[in-house]
Amino acid sequence: MDLNLVVLFGRLAAVPELRVFESGVRLLRFLVTVRSDAPRSRVDVVPVTLWDPPDHLESLPSGSRVWISGAVQRRFWDGNEGRRSRLEVVASQVTPREAALCTDDTTVGTLPNP
């Protein structure tokens, strides 16, 4: 059995972009930066897509810390240079850090700054 599961904790690189389709379906796209110190210091920028997001996620400012869980997906399209593709995370859940330890809409604490 295979498993496609991604969990990220990072910062929004820019304000999320919301698209609303004629059908009423909403799509939120954003970039998350994830820092790593091992084996060497680097910052990865990961594109994330969330379908039908809750309203409060649309207004998160750049730099906000977020937890993301979802799956990796490769998108394909035809561009000027031929067939193109990119990996992205299709999120099933996005939680702002301040709300990461909530139960039944009641905040019971916050996570420490890493």
Q: What is the CATH class?
A: Mainly Beta
Strand content: over 45%
Helix-and-strand structural type: mainly beta
How many separate domains make up the residues? Answer: 1
H-E string: EEEEEEEE
Helix content: under 10%
User: How are strands sequenced across the largest beta sheet?
Assistant: 1-3-4-6-5
Question: Can you walk through the features of this model?
Answer:
The protein is mainly β and 114 residues long. The chain has one domain (6-97): Nucleic acid-binding proteins (OB fold (Dihydrolipoamide Acetyltransferase, E2P)), CATH 2.40.50. 0% of the residues lie in helices and 58% in strands. The protein is built from no helices and eight strands. The strands form two sheets. It has a five-stranded mixed β-barrel with strand order 1-3-4-6-5. β5 and β6 form a beta hairpin.
Outline the secondary-structure elements.
Layout: E1 6-12, E2 17-20, E3 26-36, E4 42-51, E5 65-79, E6 82-96, E7 102-103, E8 106-107
Parallel strand pairs: 4-6
Antiparallel strand pairs: 1-3, 1-5, 2-3, 3-4, 5-6, 7-8
Summarize the structure.
The protein is mainly β.
Label this structure with key terms:
single chain; about 110 residues; mainly beta; OB fold (Dihydrolipoamide Acetyltransferase, E2P); 5-stranded mixed β-barrel; two-stranded antiparallel ribbon; about 0% helix; globular
